[in-house]
Specification:
Length: 248
């Protein structure tokens, strides 16, 4: 078991990639806080993990709301004594062409991805510094590197996460805390429109050298790697698990 007795927070873990990561972490022996805005889905994921012999709790939290995040992190610390691993995975899209995008759509996306990740980082980092141990994992996207039509907000947020990853890594290395980012390939409901739209799907697939969509379960092992001791000497890196889409 690569994460035996480690305590992990996975945000946006009620479905999709986050749910697959929470499940993979629990299978590797971690105690997992399944955090999501949607308590119902988070509770279902935690129940599945516990039924399979793992250890999980479900917590409702909007990562964009500072008070929610503080309360969530306190709850995890009260339950398991500390936080070793933070996965900043919660995410949304609010798609619109840039000349039609509302300020609200812009703010909402930056609020979840950037402010949400920052809120969670600050809520757990004090304890990690004290214990001289921590793993911070951010989630970015090909959109942050290549840009995307109709998603200037999402591309800006995901590019911002690259900067956050590098700053976090540089600032916290002295405390034995690593920070890395994963850029998952298209999978899960978030990209369902692209994957099912007759107009887009073939064009999009042509850009993926492995020529197929990802399964969240095949992206989860990369999250295990960055959370485990196998990546102890790796920090500030971006790993794309995207079927080769961002090869350049
Ligand atoms: N699916 C993809 O193809 C893809 C590709 C690249 C990057 N990503 C990134 O991977 C991450 C996970 O994406 P996914 O595809 O699993 O998404 P998803 O939409 O399937 O799941 C996201 C989860 O986050 C939760 N969430 C949304 N806003 C939240 C908030 N403010 N606070 C707490 N929870 C919140 C949702 O309730 C949901 O359960 C996101 O950061 C996304 O941007 C996804």
């Amino acid at each position: 078991m690569q994460l035996k007795d480690r305590v992990a927070i996975v945000t946006g873990a009620g479905q999709g990639i986050g749910a697959a990561v929470a499940t993979a972490y629990a299978r590797e022996g971690a105690k997992v806080a399944v955090v999501d805005m949607n308590l119902e889905t988070a509770a279902a994921v935690a129940a599945q993990i516990n039924a399979a012999g793992g250890q999980a709790i479900a917590l409702a939290c909007n990562v964009a709301v500072r008070a929610d995040v503080t309360a969530m992190a306190e709850q995890v610390t009260q339950t398991w004594g500390r936080v070793d691993i933070l996965v900043n995975n919660a995410g949304i899209t609010r798609t619109a062409m840039l000349h039609k995008m509302t300020e609200q759509q812009w703010q909402d996306v930056l609020g979840v991805h950037l402010t949400g990740s920052f809120n969670c980082l600050q809520a757990v980092v004090g304890g990690m510094i004290e214990r001289r141990y921590g793993r911070i994992i951010y989630v970015t996207s090909a959109a942050g590197v290549l840009g995307t039509i109709g998603q200037i907000n999402y591309s800006a947020a995901k590019a911002g996460i690259l900067g956050m990853t590098k700053s976090t890594a540089k600032e916290l290395a002295r405390y034995n805390i690593t920070a890395n980012a994963i850029a998952p390939g298209a999978s899960t409901p978030m990209t369902e429109t692209i994957r099912t739209d007759e107009k887009f799907k073939d064009k999009y697939l042509e850009r993926i050298p492995l020529a197929r969509w990802a399964e969240p379960e095949e992206i989860a092992p990369v999250f295990v790697f960055f959370a485990s001791d196998a990546s102890a000497y790796v920090t500030g890196q971006i790993l794309a698990a995207d079927g080769g889409m961002t090869i350049h």
